[in-house]
Specification:
Elements: E1 2-5, H1 11-23, E2 28-32, E3 38-42, E4 56-60, E5 79-81, E6 84-86, E7 92-96, H2 103-115, E8 120-122, H3 140-153, E9 157-160, H4 167-173, E10 176-179, H5 187-194, E11 200-203, H6 210-222, E12 228-232, H7 250-257, E13 262-264, H8 266-270, H9 273-285, E14 290-294, H10 312-329, H11 347-352
Parallel strand pairs: 7-8, 7-14, 8-9, 9-10, 10-11, 11-12, 12-13
Antiparallel strand pairs: 1-3, 1-4, 2-3, 5-6
Bound molecules: phosphoenolpyruvate (PEP) and manganese (II) ion (MN).
Manganese (II) ion (MN) binds at residues 98, 268, 294, 304-305.
Length: 360
């Protein structure tokens, strides 16, 4: 059951609801509703409600099972990652190597991706590899390199955490915790990152349904952390020509049912360098709030995922054309825009424009 209370509601309203729920043995979780008030998510139905409650805006006894992540709970959320707003209207680009390789290479690449328009630096220190014989990442040393790259460029950093026991150390260095596709349903890990305030980037399991994906987000939120960003990164298809199939249906489908920001990863989603730019554009056209892209100065020499990694120059193109796509489609979902005369940017204007930070 979801109860929205207004900013003016007296504390007694909140207290009475918490008490009534506790008496019935129902857990209650409070979250800001994006309009100054709060939504109380109760794991059960209080009927009747305690009397004399003022300041209640709405009561929803029936809702999606992901009651904190559902759109009924609140207006679209914006997640603040070290000062970069995800979901605030401007698409955000997270870019960097699949794996952190050395301090120098990471700092150099961080500078290059920033120049190319990236807002957040990505890089894996703890790597989930398909083979135990492949490079497993630099671990804590990699986290230190990330922090130095942030220091050198001012870019916030996102990196993967694979085990509940790693969460403390990763939060010491990272501005955002990435939960990898293979761990989307690792419930102890989701609960553990839910106890932090550090934002979480939750990647979709490659055979997870929309509801399973949102229920995993719910685990994080129900544990106390509302700062969740979802990432579509490709699902398993039948065609061996592709490592994964980027499932862009899910972006507008999530927007229909959830308030959480969604980004798209066209690197893992295609598994092929030559497809990344186009699918990045498609991701933004599908309504994503940003992109995560694997970048390396010499992709062929990357220690992991080089075959799906692009160069900083290609990232600059994604940034420039992506901004134009985003602008061209802004307002498309507003009902009163259906008849409007859309001013498409011209190719000439695209070529002339200097790179601009997308979320500046
Ligand atoms: C990654 O981002 O490098 C990664 C391992 O992603 P995923 O969990 O989507 O495979
Ligand atoms: Mn990778």
């Amino acid at each position: 059951m979801l109860i929205s209370i207004s900013p003016e509601a007296p504390e007694s309203t909140r207290a009475a609801i918490f008490l009534a729920a506790a008496e019935r043995g129902f857990r209650t979780q409070a979250m800001g509703n994006g309009r100054g008030g709060e939504v109380l998510a109760i794991a059960g139905t209080l009927a009747p409600l305690p009397g004399d409650l003022s300041g209640i805006e709405s009561i929803l006894p029936i809702h999606k099972p992901y009651m904190l992540a559902c759109r009924e709970a609140r207006s679209s959320s914006i997640v603040d990652v070290g000062g970069v707003m995800i979901g605030g209207g401007s698409p955000v680009i997270m870019a960097g190597p699949c794996s952190i390789e050395s301090r120098e290479s990471l700092v150099d690449l961080a500078r290059s991706v920033r120049t190319a328009g990236a807002n957040i630096l990505r890089g894996g220190a703890f790597k989930p590899r398909s083979s135990p014989y492949s490079f497993q990442g630099l671990g804590i040393e990699g986290l230190r390199h990330l922090a130095e790259a942030r220091e050198a460029t001012g870019l916030p950093v996102v990196t993967e955490v694979m085990e509940p026991e790693q969460v403390d150390v990763v939060t010491m260095y990272a501005d955002m915790l990435q939960i990898g596709s293979r761990n989307m349903a690792n419930f102890p890990l989701l609960k553990r990152v839910g106890q932090c305030t550090t934002p979480v980037l939750l990647k979709r399991g490659f055979s997870a349904t929309l509801e399973e994906f949102l229920m995993s987000a719910e685990y994080v939120m129900a544990s106390g952390n509302p700062n969740v960003v979802l990432c579509e990164r490709g699902i398993r298809g039948f065609d061996a020509a592709f490592r994964f199939n980027l499932d862009l249906n899910i972006v507008p489908a999530i927007k229909e049912v959830s308030h959480l920001p969604v980004i798209v990863d066209p690197s893992h989603g295609t598994g092929r360098r030559s497809l990344v730019k186009r699918m990045a554009m498609a991701g933004l056209a599908s309504g994503a709030d940003g992109l995560m892209v694997e970048v390396h100065p010499i992709p062929e020499q990357a220690l992991s995922d080089g075959y799906q990694t692009i160069t900083p120059d290609e990232l600059a193109q994604i940034h420039r054309y992506g901004l134009a796509i985003h602008e061209a489609l802004a307002g498309m979902d507003d009902a009163d825009d259906a008849q409007s005369d859309i001013q498409m940017p011209t190719i000439a204007s695209l070529r002339d424009e200097a790179p601009v930070a997308l979320s500046a």
